[in-house]
Amino acid sequence: MNLKTLQLRNRSTINAYLTLLAICIATFLQAQNNNIKNDSFWDTKNGEPIYSQGGGIFKFLDHETGEEKYYWYGVHYKQAEMYRADPSVTQARNNFVGVSCYTSTDLVNWKFEDNVLTQEEVFKDSERQWAWLGRMGVAYVKEADKYVLIIQYGARVLFATADSPLGPFKKSYVKSMEDWIGTTNTGDQTVFTDEDTGKSYLVYSYGKGRHKIYISEIGLKNDTITLLNYKQVFKGAGREGNCMFKYKGKYYLAASQLYGWDGSNAYYLVADDIFGPYLPENDMQVFSGAEDDYAHISQTGFFVTVRGSKQETAIFCGDRWADFAGNGLGYNQWCPLSFDGFVPYFNSINSWNLNEKTGEWEVAADNNWIKNPSFEADRKQIPSHKKPVQTRLLGWETTVINGTEISLDSLSPVLNHANTEEERKVVIGERSLNMSDSVNFIRKVHQTITSSPYVTFENDTYNLKAKIKNSDGFKYLKMYAKSGAKHLEVVVTDKNETWTTISIKNIEVTNNEVEVGFLADGKAGAYCLVDDVSLVKSN
C-alpha cells in the first residue's frame, strides 16, 4: 500500500467519523431543543422571558411566508415579572400588561412577536385604568376575513379584531352575557377551533357559582363578529378553567375545581358532537393520573392536539396562578395525555421530549420522578377544614408509628410548614414538609415511584436529593431509598439551622419500583422541615 492510498483511506475514515459525530450532535441538539421542562420559568429561543397565561394555541398561516405556524396567545401580567425576579414574595394583584403572542413551528422553540392587544387599547375609552382581563383566545372568522380576540373584561366579555394573527387587535365592543345565561360575565372561558371544520367556539361557564357550562359558535352576524348561539352542555358541581380539545374524532370538555388561584383536579366529559350530549351526563370524571399532584400543580388552561405522521398526541396545557407564586416555579405546565380507547390518562411529568412532526413523545433523561416534590400542591395548611378538605399531603403517605394521629382535630400535627420570605430565598414556594409533634413521636413520610400504565419507570441508577432544616432532639433522622432487597439511607446527626442539601447517590432501581422517604424519631417539639425533593437518573 503506497503512502497516497493510506492518506486517502485515513481521510475517508476521518470524514466518516466526522459525519457520524455531526449526526450525533444534531440528534442531541434536536432532542435538547424539543424538550419541555415543567417546574421552571420558560424562555423564548432568544432567551427572553415567556409571559403567557390563561390563553391558547392556534394554527394560522403566516401572512408573509404562507407557512402554517402555531400562535400562542396569553395574558402578560406585571406580577408575573415580579415573581420571576423574586420568587420569595407572593404578589397580591394581577395588573394587565397586554396579550402576548408567540410563534413556533414545533411547539417548543418560541419567538416573541408582540403584545397584540395593549393596555392602552383596552382602556383608551375608559375612565377606569384597571380591570381584570384574562381567559382569552383568538379565532379566524372566514366570512369576515378577520381575526377576533375574545377576552374576559371585568364582568363582561371584550371582542377585539385584527386583519392579521399578529394584530394589532383593536377594541370592537364589550358584550354582556346576561340575556343569554343570566350573568353579565363568563366564569372562565377559552376559544376552541375544530381543525376538521374550521369553525371556532367559545367555551365558558355561568358567572356565579359556575355550575353550568356553555358552548357558543363564533361567527359573523349583521356584519359583526360575535357569538351566534349558545348551548348548555353541563350542569352540576361548580367548575372553572373551562376548555376543550378533539382527539380521534371525539370532543372532550375539560374543567377544574373551584379552588381559586390554586391547582386542582382536572375533569372531563366526552361527546361525538361539539354541542353534545357530553357523557357521562352532568357527571364530570377526574383525569386518572392527575390526583396525586392536582394536574402537576396547575389548573386547566387549554389543550393542543398534535396530529403527527406517526401518532396523535393531546397535550394538557395547565396554568399556575396562585397570585403568581406559592405553587412552584413556572407559569405553564404542559403534560402529554395517553388514552385507553377514548378514556384519557394524565401523565404528570417534569421533563419530556416532543417530536411535533411525528407526534411522538418520551420522558426525558432529566425527569424528576417525585410527585409534589416541593409540597406546593397543598397550598393551604394540612390537615385542612377548608376546600379541599384533606388530611394528607398529595403524593405522599404519612405513617404515624408513635405519636398523635393525623386528623381534622385541632390537636393534630400540622403536616406542612409555611415558608418565610427568607426561607423562600433558598427553597421553592410557600410550603414544605413538616415532621413534628407535641409529644414524642416516630413518623414516616414516603412515596412509592413505579411505572404508570403508559410510562415506564426504568430500572437504572438514580440520585435522591432534598433540602432539610431541623432542630436537635432526634434519636434518629433519616432519608432513605428502598428498591428490591437494597436499602440506602443518609442519617442526619446534627442540628441544621439553615437549609441543607442531603443526597443519596447511585440508587439501583429493580422491578421498576423504589420507595423513598423520611423517617424521624423525635422528642416532643423537635421538628424537621423538608423541601425540593428530587429523584433523577444518575447518568
Describe this entry's structure for a reader:
The longest helix has 31 residues, at 3-33. The chain is mostly beta strands and 539 residues long. Helix content is 10%, strand content 46%. A hairpin with a 6-residue loop joins β10 (186-193) and β11. The strands form eight sheets. Strands 10, 11, 12, 13 and 14 form a five-stranded antiparallel beta sheet that branches. It has a five-stranded antiparallel beta sheet with strand order 25-28-33-30-31, with no helix packed on it. Pfam families: Glyco_hydro_43. One of its GO terms (biological process) is carbohydrate metabolic process. Keywords: Glycosidase, Hydrolase, Membrane, Transmembrane, Transmembrane helix.
Mean pLDDT: 93
Q: Number of DSSP helices?
A: 5
Largest sheet: 5 strands, antiparallel
Alpha-beta classification: mainly beta
Q: Measure the end-to-end span.
A: 44 Å
Segments where pLDDT lies below 50 for 5+ residues? 1-10, 16-32
Helical proportion? under 10%
Find the count of extended strands (DSSP E, 2+ residues): 34
Q: Identify the overall geometry.
A: globular
